[in-house]
Amino acid sequence: MANELDEEQMKRLADALKSGQKIEAIKSYRKATGLGLKEAKDAVEALHADLHAKYPDEYPEPSKSVGCGSSAALIALAAGALYWISQLPV
Fold first, then answer.
1. CA–CA distances in Å: residue 59 to residues 11, 22, 26, 46
2. H helices then E strands: how many in the chain?
3. Does position 1 have pLDDT exceeding 60, yes or no?
4. Sign, Cα dihedral of 48, 38, 32, 3
5. Distance between CA 69 and CA 19 in Å, rounded?
6. Is the Cβ–Cβ distance between 17 and 51 less than 8 Å?
7. Which of 31 and 64 is assigned the larger pLDDT?
8. Local structure of residue 5 (DSSP, 8 states)
9. Which residues contact 9 (CB under 8 A, 6 or more apart)?
10. Distance between CA atoms of residues 59 and 18, nearest Å
11. Nearest Cα to 9, choosing from 51, 89, 69, 25?
12. C-alpha–C-alpha distance, residues 23 and 31, integer Å
């Protein structure tokens, strides 16, 4: 992967990952390499994991995406709890 990007592109990619902007890093990688979304995502995630392993204090741990299903379940749980609380006698 590194030989597909010049030094400035690698710096921008690393800076984006350092600041937690994974989507921006993927967009930059796609633009620089012409790869598809999945290939760019896989490459950026591999770079992020490598950077985190080498510099754990500078690069946040790569997130384990839980998807929107977990978010929807959490919202439903919170709504149910609020409804239950509102039904308690005063």
1. 13, 11, 16, 13
2. 4, 0
3. no
4. positive
5. 26
6. yes
7. 31
8. S
9. 28, 32
10. 5
11. 25
12. 12
Q: If residue 64 lies in a helix (H) or strand (E), which one and from where to where? A: none
Q: Comparing C-alpha atoms, which of 40, 53, 49 is closest to residue 17?
A: 49
Q: What is the pLDDT of residue 21?
A: 92
Q: How confident is the model at residue 2 (pLDDT cuts 50, 70, 90)?
A: very low
What would the pLDDT profile of 40-54 be if each residue is shown by its tens digit?
999 999 999 999 999
- pTM of the full structure: 0.65
The structure tokens listed for 22 are 């994974």
pLDDT 10s digits, 9-49:
999 999 999 998 999 999 999 999 999 999 999 999 999 99
The sign of the torsion formed by the CA atoms of 9, 47, 36, 27 equals negative
